[in-house]
Every structure is written in C-alpha cells, then in structure tokens.
Amino acid sequence: MPDRRRISKLLSLILRHRPDEFGLNMDAYGFIPLAEVVESVQQRYSAVEEEDIRDLIETSRQHRFEIVDDRVRALYGHSFFVEMDGEPMAAPEHLYLCVPAAQGQRMKEEGIRSEDRFYLHLSPTREVAESRAGTVTTPCIVEVRAAAAATEAEVQFWSRGEVVLTRQVIGAEYVGEVVEIEAPPGSLVRDDEPDERPRRRPGGGRERSEDGPRGRKPREHSASDSPPETPRPPRTAPPAEEPKKAPSFGRAPKFSTGSGRR
Questions:
Q1: Which CATH number applies to 4-74?
Q2: Domain residue spans of the chain
Q3: What is the pTM of this model?
Q4: Which CATH class is domain 95-180?
Q5: What is the b/e burial string over 195-227, where b = at least 16 CB atoms within 10 angstroms of the residue's CB?
Q6: Mind listing the pLDDT tens digit for each residue in 172-220?
Q7: What's the helix, strand, coil split of the chain in %, to 5?
C-alpha cells in the first residue's frame, strides 16, 4: 500500500473538502458509502484495498475519520457545512484551544468564534491542545470554561474524536487562562492539508525567489557584450485578455437525501 500519510491526505481531500470533484454524493451528516470512497482512492492508488482504508482509520492516532455501517465520514475539519448527529456531549469543566498568542489575547477580551470554519474546533485536554503547537506561530493555550458556558449560555458541544465542536460564540466571560508555550522545533506544516500544490501569490503565478524564477540569478551583462547589429522594432502591447476566474476550492458537495446516523 502507498504511504499511509498520502492515503490519509487523499481521504481528507475527498471527505472534508471536494467530494463533488470525485463524483460522490454525501448525506447531511458527512457520510459516503465506503465502497464508493475506496473506488475513488483506487483511481489514484490502485493497490489500495478496502481493508487498508479500514485499518488506517481504525488505528489512526488523530481519529480524523469514522466508519459506521459501511459508510465513512470525516469527523471534523470540513470546508462546507455538515449537520451534527447524536446528542451534544456533557460539557467538561474546561476545554482548550491552541492559537497564536496575539489571537489568544483578543479572545480574552472579545470571546471566541470560528473564523474560517462552520464549527469552532476545541481540544478536550490541555495535552491535546499543546500537541498542535507545531502548527502555530508563537503558540498559546486558551482555557475555555465549557461547563459554565453550557449551563449559563446554553452553548452545545459535540465530541468528534480528539476534537470538540461547537457552532456558537463563546463569550469573553467564559475564557479562562491564556498561557504562552514554546513551539516545538520543526516546520509549521499540517499533515492533513488537502493537496500539495505550489503556493500561489495573490496575483497568480507561482512564488519566486528574489533571484528570479526557480532561484536562478539574472544574467550579468558586461561592457564587452555586443549590441545587436540591427535594432529590433518596438513591441506593441498584446491585447488585454479576459481575466481568468480563480479556481474555487471547498465547494459544497451534492448532498443525498439519505439520513445519517442519529
């Protein structure tokens, strides 16, 4: 079987971000038939079998996915909305969040809300939150008084593997300690990114170094370089092209009418 990390990233792409691009229909709770997901994975990695995917999901330390009744889904991290099934969890006294220190201080004053996802992702323990410090610059741990928020503000929480989700804003009065911690050595690269495409600048095109494309230094001209014998005619500017539309990522999938686990 190909590298497990590559398979996990492909599953994230299919189940969290772009199921429609693989021709898959997802129900309202994020489930897709496992056999269909296996076929999609085999389009890229033909040697992968269903048992390989089952083993990866069942033995993964991060608990990103689950299989229920021959259906599979991502438990968290979606870039489109999915419903929560089951009952909310009994809120523990505290939940935790690992964020940049400056953001943590703002949360202390303004409260906590999800900024780039439909659900706010919290950690059930301080240790789990600290394990995410490698993906955050100048990290800090934010303590959330979850039980008080649930009792007084009726904030609901759902347990999803090693992540706790909520859609509601957590008021500043329920933010406890904010403690800066030391980031572990290593790069700030997440292992669940949907793909490994080159980063692009806001204006389009791949990022280049100051030395020019692909890191090559520009050619240095000397005084001995001879000018062309015949001057070239001036170039005319090409006609303006219609601006190309930027690719859209994280499009919402086509949802089937089947119901998920309740």
A1: 1.10.10.970
A2: 4-74, 95-180
A3: 0.69
A4: alpha beta
A5: eeeeeeeeeeeeeeeeeeeeeeeeeeeeeeeee
A6: 999 999 999 988 876 454 444 444 333 333 344 434 333 333 333 434 4
A7: 25, 20, 55
